[in-house]
Amino acid sequence: MSTARMENPVILGLSNQNGQMRGSVKPAGGPGGGGGVSQTTQPAQVKPSSTVNNGNSQPAPTANTIIKPGDDWKKNLKLPPKDLRMRTSDVTATKGNEFEDYCLKRELLMGIFEMGWEKPSPIQEESIPIALSGRDILARAKNGTGKSGAYLIPLLERIDLKKDSIQALVIVPTRELALQVSQICIQVSKHMGGVKVMATTGGTNLRDDIMRLDETVHVVIATPGRILDLIKKGVAKVNQVQMIVLDEADKLLSQDFVQMMEEILSYLAKQRQILLYSATFPLSVQKFMNSHLQKPYEINLMEELTLKGVTQYYAYVTERQKVHCLNTLFSRLQINQSIIFCNSSQRVELLAKKISQLGYSCFYIHAKMRQEHRNRVFHDFRNGLCRNLVCTDLFTRGIDIQAVNVVINFDFPKLGETYLHRIGRSGRFGHLGLAINLITYDDRFNLKGIEEQLGTEIKPIPSSIDKSLYVAEYHSESGEEVKL
């Protein structure tokens, strides 16, 4: 199990301007958002270059192991510790396929298994064989059910190392998601003998990207503005791209990005494969699909919208009671890591300051911060250096931090889509988690509307919350499915 590493929750030598706030050290073993992990959990030692996907930490890539013909290649794999937490049917309701059923390269299979991915999730079962056939895909699946693996595995299988051109593009809406996906891609492909993966995002040095593209790059993972800039400058040559993936497609095809996406596609060859993945698909996606996709294979694993493993509660409060309520939650809940959402950058910083004054260390992140500070906060929170993160909706898209078991909406969102993506930061890959919403008088209609829109129930918060709903060590260590 991935847990927050909390030997010293006070981050020394860092100003509170970079998103990392001081808090006085709370005694180890106590509940809530303070200094120590509970005594029943073990700290996860995660190296800076690692990536976390399915509850397991990965070492940095090492030199390829030479496998001789006739060797049992699986014996040479460096598998991570088995994840023994219970999982819901969101990821266990499969057809029983194995990754080896898809005739993938052995080197790719080695990377898959060393990520701790034992069997395909439902979205991976549906996507991988269709993507390998070269057909366009329109896929709807819940947050945290393995969408990244669903497109990266066929993408890597189809890379031709004899060609030194860009062969695949993955477009994502945020810089943090680009870095996360690129790390997963690097880890999965580490035995493949030279797949070159590049992440490029806004807020970083353009000269570095230009120099990098002067060398061989096979896969580019990018935010829309930066890759379009590189294409227009003639630096990123995309005429041989055979596959383009839009991850979080609903956001990429919203008014913020759709013109850039149309322009990016205009530079690609006519015969290219387009894969769209998201949890929600508004009308803008339908319009794009009709214009650009050729007889797409449609996958819809969204019979219900919310994750089965996330229990949702609301607490009815006044605006002035919110901080006191949050303090009470910290003291009563067994939080491994929490993400706390506010509706503006200013409120994020104010709340982070309040939390630190209460004696709890926390980080914060929002879009107005300098990119190097955002990267540092994202990296350190992911590696367990702090228990609480306060953020805006910047952090709702695809970010996968397995140790997060509690999400708190300090400010309740207005849109059901926003709510769905926020609570999807907990209960990743079929595990269990809590979503707690602080509701004021002005939020009451939004609460009812979002319940109806998502077909879900947000219950009044009880005086005591059953730990088996969100704390992994209160379950039998069998990895069995939770019947929810």
From TrEMBL:
EC numbers for this chain: 3.6.4.13
GO molecular function: ATP binding; hydrolase activity; RNA binding; RNA helicase activity
Extent of motif Q motif: 97-125
UniProt KW keywords: ATP-binding, Cytoplasm, Helicase, Hydrolase, Nucleotide-binding, RNA-binding
Polar residues composition bias: residue spans: 38-65
Domain Helicase ATP-binding per the UniProt entry, residue ranges: 128-299
Region (Disordered), start-end ranges: 14-79
The organism's place on the tree of life at top rank: Eukaryota
Gene3D superfamilies, sorted: P-loop containing nucleotide triphosphate hydrolases (3.40.50.300)
Compartments, as annotated in UniProt: Cytoplasm, P-body
Catalytic activity: ATP + H2O = ADP + phosphate + H(+)
Amino acid composition bias (Basic and acidic residues), ranges on this chain: 69-79
GO cellular component, one term: P-body
The family this protein is said to belong to: Belongs to the DEAD box helicase family. DDX6/DHH1 subfamily.
Protein name per Swiss-Prot or TrEMBL: RNA helicase
Organism: Carassius auratus
